[in-house]
Write a sequence for this structure.
């Protein structure tokens, strides 16, 4: 972990596990493991992209980090202190302040009955950022920071009066309101118009670079992951299967799943049928006692061990890790 | 008369939920008394006569401790078996083992010692104490065939439904029974020749008065015993030639006053409250003018005309006359004055005088009456409110004298003494609806109890006169009017009805004896 | 009724020809023109892609072709000629016969276009039964065949939509679209809701089917890379206008209109050099508050005087290549 | 299956709660049947006799708990004791006599108004912009808000009393013997016209609105558009594709409506002297006939629960997404 | 004091600002109101009727010609100049009674609606938002109440409670009519609960009670209001029904008691139709008007119920285009 230019680690996750009960009964044997053995470090001013297909546990991971869900195992260390220590009212509020979340759906993440002002002022009020006047000023500053001009007018609007891109900017402004250290962005652009996506990505990039905010960027668009994030982790069925430096992961993918993912990405000019490097197979439901490699059933490179042994981590290059038996 | 035609059917409305196969006269809600079962005798309060039915005569011994009843000759049950004194004695003794059937509590009250059949025609009642009023209860007991009822175990009596009933009344043949209609036809063994003239009676089931009205208007029934709104314009007008009504006076309606509470403890206040009322207007407006206005403060009304003391009526006449000025003056004198100019009077100590008049929710004619009463009271500066309560509350209120004022009726019975028993006997307090007003005295108890000790009509009347005087002088309740006996009849098919012109009996359907007389008198036109 | 426009001249007779089509939405706040004066053609066997951001009128155009509009949409002008007949002038009966037989449509989200309470089988067979005199048995056999064509097992006929995954549902919808072997299939963002791997599977299927049946496709998407891969020609729409149309390669590699340029530049590539992209600044226009002149003026980097006054018209830049911009 | 089991558990518990409530109700309220009897006799009854009568009707004391156990037993053995109102006839018999008629009336009118309402509602949603869709639902809203009893009385007055074309009261002409004869059936039908008619008139609006709203929600769904695009006939689109889904929310409302329908039938039965449970219930209440009231409420609760259960089954059948 | 002077100019500015804001808000409300009524005849008729009825009730003492609780005429006088809607059997003025009766009936209905909706909101939102065991229990209770035959129960309760003044009826109706609303609100809350704005409020550290009251509740306004109107309509009918059955307090002047008296005085048979029909019509009008308002709220809050003034325009335009294509 210790590189030469050791950047400060803000958020460190070790072997995080999250289980969900299946069906209505909550007995032990009917759990599904949405996130299994996930570890990573998020450094100051850096972005970690999490990519993976739908249902691979990306959002769940982020939600555990933002304490919407309780983790079922592993350690989360925020600024050198385990998450478990941010417990009392003050502590948890403090954590809530420093780790903010931006949601996928700009339509769903703003309450339609409240004005934009309310949305941005609330966190300021909760975290006692000053009296009315101060807060008002802060709100307008924040709106301008995310590129919503004129701020006063925008503040008095209601969510339905804004376009998707504007709404997502509001969401970002709200996340920024209380000077967070970490922003967990859960597919922040997937619901946006193609023409405004880049604007949001660039805005986030500026925040990262200029304000030193760390991002966890969740997406299923591997191209934007590479564009925005320094590091990328590929998830499959709750597991990180390949991670490391974004360029390495996207340019020289080593894990068969990453390769499959990249080969499926549509590319202009490459017309015609393109065989996928994977067998057709059901995506498994991972249970606490499931054995083997999650990708085994679809893996073209599967060997015997894949069926019953969970692959361990291999560092195949500097800052490039995979979980695979058959490297 | 020879020209009377036999045949025809009488259709009457029954207010109930439907007919069921239960011919036990004690549990079938009075459906069959006087129809399937014949009483020994009927005390006709309209004529003051005793109409002997199964009995031929009934005599008290001189010590008033023995009653000897003789049956008619050759009377038979509807199944052809002879009806003997043994049956009668059985019928009375049976109610000893089935206390619920003991309608007048002859056994439970302990006065009846024995009932025995001394021969085939003679029944002897032996009493422990002299009681000349005892005999009035006898018609309440049904004469039942021992050969049927004797086989029923005592504990099963209450639930015995008496299938295939055997009776001695005019109509004993159940033609059919459907939930909403049933028909009984003539008893071929009836003891009177050619009687009844009519062949059958049809009972039709109705929910309430409001359904009897259209049925009467449409001519579906012959005899109504129900309140009919605006009868001239609805019922009579529908067929003036055949549709008639006659509303003779029935029980007296009073406003009961709780004399234990101020300011009602003041007799003058009670008098004033009585004088404030325009009874004619109340009867006219609130009750369509059907009831008979009661100007008699003696506690009994028109129904008992022969017993009413003219003297008492005359002496206390002023109390029942509409005289608001006098009423106000009486109140002023009693110290009830409007001290704070709110239009209503206060007690001398400044407490406000405001009271509720209890009336049962749903008894609309009375509600209207009470509404008018409050209006009259308002005119003399007394604040009274109509309080409609559930009857359970009303019932409890009257019995336990938890009221300030409550509208209530009086007993209807063979003799007015029974009404006075309910009004004044100290032992009735807490039990009877009529005794909660708070006016009682040992002397009056003795006076009332002395009634049964004599058989002398003149002496009895003397007692009644004294009771009337006592009532009028103390005014425990304010007389309003006599209820009407609701009675509508149609002469399209049948004639022979009691009427104003021929008032041979009080025309109530709900009395087995009275209706027995009427059924026996009806015939085809 | 005749082919009027010069710029639609083609070597082959077009399968579908749209002339000056205008579609309006009558809303409480005014009339929004969601498709404005659009003219284009689709040749037999051709895949025409329509790209553009959300709300630019792509779906509206697709709906117009099958005349599926309900209130408050209104096809206010133009003609849509299919095999010489104007669809807009068909009677209800003709329309019913025309639908699906000649043109079928795959809706934007397969999740919602299958009735959740009716079996896959019935939803497949009833379209066959509605258009063909065929016994129920044969219809079922045909339905099975169709499912197998799209790579699903015939047993799935008895399933209800919720028992299938998103990708499977999408295949079912495609199977239904193929049921009557139409000449043209309209695909409105058929893969947007799916992840890349499933999307790829569906695309592969589509390539095979196209080879097998030879239908034309009107492919709607906002994903230009996908479009560049699948389409023969691409049309780009902005605020109801067709602003650029031409063969896929040219549009993708050498776009003429600033909007198209910006759009293409909005997609970071996985393999290319990693540099900051600038995309298109600003927000999409509101159809109810269109400016005079070019609709794109507010976001255009090279906006000129004339752009604020005149509406640019679609001009032929080269054979079969048109764009609408004052700069060209 | 587990879904149904859970529901079954729910029904059973609900049933227990309901019957316990039934048990408590009379015991919390003032007055008892004998007082009522006494009041009804208007003084013709001797006070000394009241205790004997009370005993006769079987109102014995005992700890509340014992009474409760006895009551629960009686519920499950269906031996509910004699009615007070119709002593000594068993409550079961009394109820059995009227239950079929109430079911006929309540269910009959429910079914007819449901069918009419759904049809009208579907059409009204289809012709939402037209005259029908704009005027018929509001009109029905006004009609259904006319106090039910007044509607019934007016019908009664005009058709029964003034025009004399329909009978005034009863379930059938009492001079006819019940049986599978044309005479009897036609008499029943004739007697049902007014009571049912009035209930239908009042009840129909609910279904029109329910169906209309459900339809309008469904008509905007993609699968309806898809069905249209497939070139299916509009009949098939309306009834198979849209109606099939729109009926789902309506189906849950049906079970609820059973309770309301019964309530409606109380008034109808009173006005038209129809021989049903509602009529008896009202009389029973006046007479404080607890066994009868309890029995009727019991039936009612069971009926509503059964209806709900049937609705659940129906729902599972109608909506394949539920069955799990 | 000191502070005040320095702040005064600021305060003035902010007051000005506030004023403007207020003006803007008023304007916005006005626009919304106008939009609500425009081309929404049910709303216009409904609100007009209700306004009239409410005004009538409010100004009953001024408008009525007689004391409604006093005998002011002979029994059953036909409508005349002195008693414009006739008199009752008890000699009361029907017109004055209808006006005063509206007060009682509407108050009962209104408060029953408020009670029911308050319980419904409390149960529905809590149960829907908190979920888990709380939800299970609350849902169970709701369902039990829901399947309980309400009106018969109400009749039994009313009868047993003895004196049932309007207060008792209000409470009875209130506490028995909530389950339906609770269920609807619960399901809506569950839909909202998982919306991201709630999750983000939670993550932000908002208190539960604030989330319920400030974040969730305002989103439910239209259902709550719809449910409220529904309950009011129902309560009004039920009050009248209980009154007619004689289970209400016959001495209070309400529409229910008016009908009761009309019925016991056999006013239909005696030809005094006014005594019965006037309160009946009042009930029908009020209920109908509320139903209309409910219907029009539906139309506004449910975007799928596309109606409004623009639909008229659409209809006209559609007819024109259809005509021009020879389809009409
Ligand atoms: N609250 C929950 N209860 C039970 N299961 C859940 C819950 N949330 C998520 N899951 C399950 O956990 C798995 C991972 O879900 P998650 O939302 O994290 O995926 P994702 O990678 O974010 O997918 P997407 O790209 O669709 O957002 C899925 O199988 C999902 O069904
Ligand atoms: N029913 C409608 N009523 C009013 N306006 C509508 C309606 N449907 C669509 N519009 C408007 O018409 C325009 C074009 O919509 P359309 O659905 O064709 O866009 P699209 O290009 O398919 O977008 P997307 O990529 O989001 O599917 C949009 O601005 C939209 O707001
Ligand atoms: Mg996610
Ligand atoms: Mg679209």
């Amino acid at each position: 972990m210790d590189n030469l230019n050791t950047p400060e680690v803000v958020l460190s996750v070790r072997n995080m596990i999250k289980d969900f009960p299946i069906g209505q009964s909550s007995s032990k044997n009917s759990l599904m493991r949405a996130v299994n053995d996930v570890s990573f470090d998020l450094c100051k001013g850096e972005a970690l992209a999490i990519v993976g297909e739908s249902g691979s546990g990306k959002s769940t991971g982020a939600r555990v980090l933002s304490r919407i869900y309780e983790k079922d195992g592993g350690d989360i260390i925020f600024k050198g202190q385990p998450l478990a220590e941010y417990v009392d009212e003050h502590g948890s509020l403090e954590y809530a302040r420093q780790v903010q979340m931006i949601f996928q759906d700009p339509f769903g993440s703003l309450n339609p009955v409240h004005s934009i002002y309310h949305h941005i002022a609330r966190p300021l009020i909760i975290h006692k950022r000053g009296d009315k006047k101060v807060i008002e000023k802060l709100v307008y500053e924040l709106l301008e920071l995310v590129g919503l001009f004129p701020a006063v007018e925008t503040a008095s609007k209601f969510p339905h009066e804004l376009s998707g891109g504007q709404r997502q900017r509001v969401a970002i402004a709200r996340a920024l309101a209380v000077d967070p250290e970490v922003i967990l962005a859960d597919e922040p652009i997937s619901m946006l118009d193609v023409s405004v996506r880049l604007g949001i990505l660039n805005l986030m990039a500026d925040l990262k670079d200029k304000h030193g905010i760390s991002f966890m960027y969740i997406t299923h668009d591997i191209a934007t992951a590479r564009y925005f994030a320094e590091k990328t982790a590929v998830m499959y069925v709750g597991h990180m299967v390949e991670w490391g430096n974004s360029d390495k992961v996207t340019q020289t993918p080593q894990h068969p799943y990453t390769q499959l993912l990249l080969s499926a990405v549509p590319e202009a000019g490459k017309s015609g049928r393109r065989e996928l490097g994977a067998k057709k197979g059901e995506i498994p439901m991972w249970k606490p006692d499931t054995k083997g490699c999650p990708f085994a059933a679809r893996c073209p490179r599967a060997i015997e061990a894949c069926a019953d042994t969970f692959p361990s981590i291999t560092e195949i290059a500097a800052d490039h890790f995979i979980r695979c038996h058959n490297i | 008369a020879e020209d009377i035609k036999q045949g025809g059917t009488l259709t009457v409305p029954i207010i109930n939920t439907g007919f069921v196969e239960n011919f036990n006269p004690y549990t079938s809600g009075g459906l069959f008394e006087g129809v399937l079962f014949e009483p020994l005798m009927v005390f006709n309060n309209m004529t003051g006569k005793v109409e002997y039915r199964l009995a031929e005569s009934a005599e008290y011994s001189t010590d008033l401790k023995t009653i000897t009843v003789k049956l008619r000759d050759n009377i038979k049950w509807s199944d052809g078996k002879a009806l003997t004194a043994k049956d009668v004695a059985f019928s009375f003794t049976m109610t000893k083992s089935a206390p619920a059937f003991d309608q007048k509590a002859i056994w439970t009250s302990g006065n009846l010692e024995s009932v025995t059949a001394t021969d085939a025609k003679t029944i002897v009642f032996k009493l422990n104490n002299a009681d000349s009023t005892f005999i009035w209860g006898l018609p309440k007991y049904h004469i039942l065939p021992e050969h049927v009822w004797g086989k029923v175990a005592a504990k099963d009596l209450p639930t015995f439904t008496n299938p295939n009933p055997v009776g001695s009344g005019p109509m004993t043949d159940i033609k059919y029974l459907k939930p909403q209609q049933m028909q009984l036809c003539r008893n071929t063994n009836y003891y009177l020749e050619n009687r009844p003239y009519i062949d059958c009676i049809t009972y039709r089931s109705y929910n309430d008065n409001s359904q009897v009205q259209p049925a009467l208007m449409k001519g579906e029934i012959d005899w109504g015993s129900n309140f009919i709104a605006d009868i001239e314009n609805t019922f009579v007008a529908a067929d003036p030639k055949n549709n008639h009504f006659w509303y003779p006076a029935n029980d007296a309606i009073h406003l009961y006053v709780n004399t234990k509470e101020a300011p009602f403890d003041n007799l003058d206040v009670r008098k004033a409250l009585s004088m404030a009322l325009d009874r004619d207007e109340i009867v006219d407006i609130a009750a369509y003018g059907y009831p008979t206005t009661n100007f008699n403060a003696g506690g009994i009304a028109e129904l008992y005309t022969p017993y009413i003391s003219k003297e008492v009526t005359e002496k206390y006449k002023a109390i029942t006359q509409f005289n608001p000025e006098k009423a106000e003056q009486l109140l002023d004198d009693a110290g009830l004055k409007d001290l704070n100019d709110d239009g209503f009077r206060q007690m001398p100590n400044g407490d406000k005088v405001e009271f509720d008049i209890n009336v049962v929710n749903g008894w609309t004619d009375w509600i209207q009456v009470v509404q008018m009463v409050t209006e009259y009271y308002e005119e003399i500066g007394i604040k009274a409110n109509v309080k409609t309560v559930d009857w359970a509350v009303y019932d409890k209120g009257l019995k336990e004298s938890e009221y300030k004022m409550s509208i209530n009726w009086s007993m209807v019975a063979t003799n007015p003494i029974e009404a006075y028993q309910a009004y004044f006997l100290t032992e009735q307090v807490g039990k009877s609806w009529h005794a909660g007003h708070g006016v009682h005295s040992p002397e009056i108890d003795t006076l009332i109890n002395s009634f049964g000790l004599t058989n002398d009509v003149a002496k009895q009347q003397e007692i009644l006169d004294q009771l009337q005087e006592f009532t009028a002088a103390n005014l425990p309740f304010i007389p309003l009017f006599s209820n009407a006996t609701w009675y509508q009849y149609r002469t399209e098919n049948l004639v022979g009805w009691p009427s104003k012109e021929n008032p041979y009996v009080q025309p109530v359907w709900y009395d087995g004896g009275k209706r027995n007389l009427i059924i026996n008198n009806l015939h085809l036109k | 009724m005749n082919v009027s426009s010069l710029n639609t001249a083609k070597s082959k007779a077009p399968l579908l020809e749209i002339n000056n089509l205008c579609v309006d939405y009558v809303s409480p706040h005014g009339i929004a023109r969601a498709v404005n004066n659009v003219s284009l053609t689709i040749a037999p066997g051709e895949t025409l892609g329509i790209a553009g951001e959300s709300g630019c009128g792509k779906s509206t155009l697709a709906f117009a072709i099958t005349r599926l509009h309900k209130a408050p949409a209104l096809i206010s002008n133009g003609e849509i000629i299919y095999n010489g007949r104007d669809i807009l002038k068909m009677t209800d009966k003709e329309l019913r016969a025309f639908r699906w037989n000649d043109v079928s449509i795959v809706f934007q989200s397969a999740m919602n276009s299958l009735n959740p309470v009716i079996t896959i089988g019935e939803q497949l067979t009833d379209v066959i039964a509605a258009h063909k005199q065929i016994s129920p048995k044969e219809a079922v056999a045909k339905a099975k065949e169709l499912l197998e064509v799209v790579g699903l097992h015939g047993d799935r006929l008895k399933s209800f939509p919720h028992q299938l995954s998103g990708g499977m549902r999408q295949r079912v919808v495609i199977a239904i679209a193929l049921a009557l072997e139409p000449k043209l299939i309209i695909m409105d963002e058929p893969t947007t809701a799916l992840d890349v791997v499933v999307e790829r599977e569906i695309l592969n299927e589509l390539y095979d089917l196209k080879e097998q049946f030879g239908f034309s496709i009107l492919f709607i998407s906002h994903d230009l890379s996908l479009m560049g891969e699948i389409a023969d020609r691409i049309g780009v729409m902005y605020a109801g206008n067709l602003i650029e149309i031409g063969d896929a390669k040219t549009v993708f590699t050498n776009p003429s209109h600033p909007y198209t340029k910006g759009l293409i530049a909005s997609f970071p590539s996985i393999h290319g050099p990693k540099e900051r992209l600038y995309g298109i600044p600003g927000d999409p226009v509101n159809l109810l508050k269109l400016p005079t002149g070019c609709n794109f003026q507010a976001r255009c980097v090279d906006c000129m005087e004339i752009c604020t006054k005149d509406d640019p018209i679609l001009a032929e830049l080269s054979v079969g290549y048109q764009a609408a911009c004052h700069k060209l | 299956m587990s879904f149904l089991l859970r529901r079954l558990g729910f029904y059973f518990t609900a049933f227990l709660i309901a019957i316990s409530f039934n048990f408590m109700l009379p015991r919390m309220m003032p007055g008892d049947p004998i007082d009522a009897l006494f009041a009804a006799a208007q003084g013709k009854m001797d006070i000394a006799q009241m205790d004997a009568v009370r005993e006769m009707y079987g109102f014995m004391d005992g700890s509340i708990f014992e009474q409760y156990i006895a009551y629960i037993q009686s519920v499950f053995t269906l031996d509910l004791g004699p009615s007070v109102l119709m002593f000594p006839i068993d409550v079961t018999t009394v109820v059995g006599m009227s239950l079929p008629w109430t079911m006929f009336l309540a269910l009959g009118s429910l079914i007819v108004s449901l069918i009419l309402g759904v049809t009208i509602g579907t059409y009204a949603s289809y012709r939402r912009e037209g005259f029908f869709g704009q005027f018929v639902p509001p009109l029905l809203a006004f009609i259904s808000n006319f106090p039910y009893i007044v509607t019934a009385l007016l019908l009664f007055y005009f058709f029964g009393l003034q025009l004399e074309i329909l009978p005034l009261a009863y379930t059938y002409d009492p001079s006819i013997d019940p049986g599978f004869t044309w005479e009897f059936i036609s008499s029943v039908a004739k007697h049902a016209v007014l009571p049912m008619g009035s209930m239908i008139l009042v009840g129909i609006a609910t279904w029109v609105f329910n169906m209309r709203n459900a339809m309008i929600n469904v008509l905007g769904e993609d699968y309806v558009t898809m069905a249209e695009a497939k070139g299916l006939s509009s009949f098939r689109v309306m009834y198979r594709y849209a109606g099939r889904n729109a009926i789902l929310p309506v189906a849950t409302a049906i079970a609820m409506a059973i309770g309301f329908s019964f309530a409606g039938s109380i008034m109808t039965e009173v006005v038209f002297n129809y021989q049903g449970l509602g009529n008896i219930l009202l009389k029973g209440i006046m007479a404080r006939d607890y066994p009868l009231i309890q029995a009727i409420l019991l039936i009612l609760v069971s009926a509503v629960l059964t209806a709900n259960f049937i609705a659940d089954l129906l729902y599972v059948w109608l909506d394949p997404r539920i069955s799990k | 004091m000191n502070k005040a002077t320095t702040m005064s100019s600021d305060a003035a500015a902010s007051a000005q600002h506030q004023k403007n804001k207020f003006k803007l808000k008023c304007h916005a409300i006005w626009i919304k109101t106008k939009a609500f009524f425009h081309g929404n005849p049910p709303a216009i008729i409904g609100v007009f009727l209700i306004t009239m009825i409410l005004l009538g009730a409010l100004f009953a003492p001024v408008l009525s010609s007689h004391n409604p609780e006093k005998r002011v005429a002979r029994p059953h006088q036909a409508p005349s100049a002195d008693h414009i809607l006739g008199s009752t059997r008890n000699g009361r003025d029907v017109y004055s009674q209808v006006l005063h009766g509206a007060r009682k009936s509407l108050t009962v209905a209104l408060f029953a609606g408020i009670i029911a909706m308050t319980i419904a909101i409390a149960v529905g939102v809590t149960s829907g938002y908190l979920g888990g065991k709380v939800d299970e229990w609350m849902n169970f209770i709701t369902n039990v109440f829901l399947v309980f035959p309400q009106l018969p129960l109400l009749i039994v309760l009313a009868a047993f409670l003895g004196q049932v003044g309007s207060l008792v009826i209000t409470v009875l109706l209130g506490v028995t009519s909530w389950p339906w609303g609770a269920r609807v609100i619960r399901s809506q809350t569950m839909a909202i609960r998982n919306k991201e704005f709630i999750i983000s409020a939670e993550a932000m550290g908002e208190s539960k009670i604030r989330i319920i009251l400030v974040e969730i509740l305002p989103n439910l306004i239209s259902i709550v209001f719809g449910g409220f109107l529904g309950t009011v309509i129902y309560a009004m009918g039920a009050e009248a029904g209980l009154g007619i059955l004689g289970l209400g307090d016959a001495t209070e002047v309400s529409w229910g008691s008016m009908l009761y008296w009309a019925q016991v005085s056999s006013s239909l048979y005696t030809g005094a139709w006014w005594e019965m029909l006037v309160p009946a019509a009042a009930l029908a009008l009020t209920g109908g008007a509320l139903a209309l308002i409910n219907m029009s709220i539906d139309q506004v809050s449910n975007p799928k119920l596309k109606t409004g003034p623009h639909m008229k325009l659409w209809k006209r335009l559609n007819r024109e285009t259809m005509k021009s294509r020879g389809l009409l």
